[in-house]
């Protein structure tokens, strides 16, 4: 219970998959959790699964700067600080570069990368007020190794990886006590990936890519996020944690 006692946490994309597993883990550890997501119906269901733990569900499109400003003001007015920010919301659409429109490119960059910039910028004063603020940004193995037909997604997730390191350096230079690290999951079973994994051909190809021989689970990524959000990782900043069953070790 004490791991996150008295901590205020915000998780984006918290209504589903890895974000929901992370929000649950934070709540189980004693944190007060803000669950932010643009899917209002899914947020309602997520709230039920956190019944009994202090939490708030916030409809937020992470690409909307005014939404971030309003949420920061709400957290400031209630708690005056934020201890943990998990920039998790995102999704991918996969196509060859020559088949990708500029609008499609921009929408992937906006949800996966602009969101991390906006969250970091607008939550930073509250994270600094914590004294032990922790930012965990969701990248992907696609932020480290490329794959054909992942142009906009890989560009966004690679951007998240480097942006996290810049954040870590700026916070260290400011001496504000905020750490920033990124996580890089491989093939993880969530509502985002379920349709692809339901195709036996795709599932077979993906499994062939995983030395541990199985697809990962949302809580296995959440465990890594919780570690980076906790004091157990107090000497880690600007680092990247890969959770991929060995895929990128090959
Ligand atoms: P998911 O689809 O289960 O959950 C993502 C959540 O983000 C959803 O609730 C969705 O409503 C929300 N979301 C999407 N766009 C949003 C926006 N503009 N504003 C607010 N909320 C928004 O997906 P999953 O798998 O849990 O993915 C979470 C993160 O993990 C994503 O950033 C994804 O790119 C990343 N990731 C996932 C992997 C996987 O294999 N599932 C592998 C590597 C990274």
UniProtKB/TrEMBL annotation:
GO terms for biological process: monocarboxylic acid metabolic process. It comes from the Bacteria. Coiled coil: none annotated. Residues 7-188 form the Ketoreductase domain. Gene3D superfamilies: NAD(P)-binding Rossmann-like Domain (3.40.50.720). SMART domains: PKS_KR. Belongs to the short-chain dehydrogenases/reductases (SDR) family. This is Short-chain dehydrogenase.
